[in-house]
Amino acid sequence: MTRRPYVRDEGLSWITRHPRYIRYMTREFSCLFIGGWTLVLVWGLGQLAAGPEAWAAFLQALRSPGAIVFQLLTLAFSTYHSITWFNLTPKALPLQVGEEFLPDAVISGAHYAGWIVVSVAVLVLAGAF
I need a surface site. Which of 1, 67, 81, 104 has the fewest CB within 10 A? Predict the structure, then answer.
């Protein structure tokens, strides 16, 4: 008797089979934009170190239509990534107090509250308020 291994015929269509898979892959895809934004920030630090002319050219490049679209996409993907992570946190890091676990809403709510506090602090430090 010969044994043949089971070969699953999977293509890229598995992503569209269930909405949960689409949300998962969207979250994973967001890391490309967040990583790209990190590279832009490193490039900006290099331009800042290179002098005022290089810094001015960098700021001008950030004002181009393509850069603005990239920044808006990065903002959207990073917001989606944060929201999905905050909603997942109670499952990944359950917090036990005594014999009971904290409700999911408390853990997620604490993350959202911290996010708001940090965002307001950054806006205050940036002079937006």
Answer: 1
Other CB atoms within a 10 A radius of the CB of residue 72 amount to 10
The tens digit of pLDDT for each residue in 38-96 reads 999 999 999 999 999 999 999 999 999 999 999 999 999 999 999 999 999 999 989 99
User: What is the Cα–Cα distance from 50 to 48, expressed in whole angstroms?
Assistant: 5
> What separation, in Å, do the N-terminal and C-terminal C-alpha atoms of the chain show?
77
CA distances from 13 to 18, 31, 125 (A): 10, 21, 46
The residue written with tokens 């107090």 in the block is 97
DSSP state, 64? S
Within 10 angstroms of residue 12's Cβ, the number of other Cβ atoms is 7
Maximum pairwise Cα distance, the chain: 77
Q: Give, in order, the Cα–Cα distances in Å from 116 to each of 82, 89, 105, 123.
A: 12, 17, 16, 11
Signed CA dihedral, 72, 33, 15, 79: sign only? negative
